[in-house]
Write a structure and sequence with these properties.
With 196 residues, this protein is mostly beta strands. It has helices at 170-177, 185-190, and strands at 2-3, 8-10, 26-34, 46-53, 56-63, 70-75, 85-89, 101-109, 113-118, 121-126, 140-142, 146-147, 150-151, 156-164.
């Protein structure tokens, strides 16, 4: 793991993109560690974002500026949240603290719901109305996003970011959390856990 002092970009490709028909399951996992919550009062801190522009967003994870909770967003930004997007807040856990690692799993269960698990505290929200998944050619940006209002950088560290085109099971999420000690993908695979 490393302090996010600059962002990492992964060139957009089909392995990181999901269906525009809301019909594809996917999950992302990472460990998040905040160094500062200074950004909570004025801006959000972006953990990762898959987008080609502000109005063509596939999915992203960020901290909410008012509550300090993690939020997983699905769909395009055009029209505003609730019109073309769905947000699920990690409200069961509440505000995330500085100086602590969190195991975060985000997922979309096709045509059903979004989910977020933070240290195994789970919240879900139905995919309803006009929420539309956008298949973007944009890059997966880790640690920040560029917006019209400036960069929304993460003041902290990330580790072991992974992406699957399936919904991780309760057991797989627990294996990654590993009773609060965390788990690397290589260690998980070596112990016989399967993450196809």
């Amino acid at each position: 793991s490393a302090m996010v002092t600059s962002s990492l970009y992964v060139v957009g490709n089909s392995s990181l993109s999901v269906s525009s028909a809301n019909s594809e399951n996917f999950s992302l996992h990472c460990y998040v560690y905040l160094e500062s919550t200074a950004g909570f009062a004025t801006a959000i801190q972006r953990v990762f974002s898959k987008a080609s522009s502000q109005t063509s967003v596939e999915y992203n994870l960020f901290t909410n500026s008012s509550s300090g909770t993690l939020v997983f967003r699905f769909g395009a930004n055009t029209g505003g949240v609730g019109t073309n997007t769905v947000d699920v807040y990690a409200s069961s856990l509440g505000t995330i603290n500085t100086g602590q690692w969190y195991s975060v799993v985000c997922w979309s269960s096709a045509n059903s719901h979004l989910g977020i698990s933070v240290n195994l505290s789970v919240n879900t929200f139905p995919i309803v109305g006009g929420a539309t998944q956008v298949t973007s050619s944009g890059m997966l940006t880790i640690g920040m996003i560029n917006t019209a209002g400036g960069d929304q950088s993460l003041y902290g560290r990330l580790d072991e970011l992974g992406f699957w085109k399936k919904v991780l099971s309760v057991q797989e999420r627990a294996d990654l959390y590993s009773n609060g000690s965390g788990n690397t993908y290589s260690s998980a695979l070596a112990s016989g856990l399967q993450f196809p």
